[in-house]
Design goal:
about 290 residues, alpha/beta, 6-stranded mixed beta sheet, 14 strands, about 30% strand
């Protein structure tokens, strides 16, 4: 097995929305805002090469939306999914599996593209299986009003229509499900229904793709929960268990949305679980 960090693009979001009830005077120390109260965000994905299987975890916003849509997200930098794949000698047609932690547009938008003949939407990974889970699929395709703007039909329905969509089978383990994938999956429900958090065994370490359970290193303190979460008190409980387990077992947390920090570890302090160290992927694995 070999892993590769894939940078699909950077954008900005409102810092207050990203930190919920935490005052700006506190979160601004770790995630400084610009004059418009926007903080830097990444859409960092992970590629797993394991024999003939090439699995991409999440794929960013994609590029099929209108300029008006992207205007709300202030994209910056020169990262792109294709450029990042090419850096490691891969093309999107090489991808055999696309694993989606959840179906918000900033995690799955790259799954579907507007085809070059401009006749409709099609899978951007023509040789891949798209993996989600049945409960989350129902949640996303019959969305509540709070999340409706994050679940875009053009990102979802073409996956199903292509015949490339499959559901992860649950075995109802209370902490970690083993799956059809090359990793274990933690299911959490606070941010959205049945978000999936991959736990990957790699080079004698456990690398955890933290997705939106822990979007940036600045979100480590327990009450630092996004205003986007549908069930923040449930996130609080899930996050407490997650952080405790990660600290106890020295997990390396791969940060999908932290534009400036790739991986972090945790330690217990008198104030609770806090940041221990920041690592780059290259420092740990290359």
């Amino acid at each position: 097995m070999k892993l590769y960090p894939i940078e699909s693009g950077n954008f900005k979001l409102d810092g207050g929305a990203m930190f919920g009830v935490v005052p700006k005077s506190i979160w601004n120390r770790t995630n400084p805002a610009d004059s418009n109260n926007l903080i830097d965000m990444a859409a960092r994905c992970l590629l797993i090469e394991n024999g003939d299987r090439l699995t991409l975890i999440d794929n960013g916003m994609g590029n099929k939306q209108s300029d008006k849509f992207f205007g709300y997200y202030y994209r910056w930098g020169d990262h792109s999914l294709d450029k990042s794949l090419n850096q490691y000698g891969f093309h999107r047609d090489d991808i055999t599996d696309v694993f989606l932690t959840h179906l918000h547009f900033d995690h799955c938008g790259g799954s579907i593209q507007w085809n070059k003949d401009k006749t409709g939407y099609e899978p951007a990974f023509k040789n891949a299986v798209f993996w989600t889970n049945e409960d989350h699929w129902k949640w996303a395709t019959e969305p509540n009003e709070r999340e409706k703007a994050s679940f875009l039909k053009e990102n979802l329905l073409p996956m199903q229509e292509s015949g490339q969509l499959q559901f992860i089978a649950r075995n109802n383990n209370p902490f970690m499900d083993q799956s059809e994938m090359d990793f274990g999956i933690l299911f959490v429900d606070g941010h959205t229904e049945k978000q999936m958090i991959p736990h990957i065994q790699y080079k004698d370490r456990t690398l955890v793709f933290a997705a939106d359970l822990l979007p940036t290193a600045g979100h480590i303190p327990l009450p630092y929960i996004m205003g986007y979460d549908t069930r923040p008190l449930l996130t609080l409980a899930e996050k407490a268990l997650f952080l405790e387990n990660a600290e106890k077992n020295n997990h390396y947390l791969f940060l999908e949305h932290d534009a400036h920090n790739q991986i972090c570890t945790l330690q217990t302090t008198e104030k609770g679980i806090r940041l221990k160290e920041i690592h780059t992927f290259a420092q740990l694995f290359e």
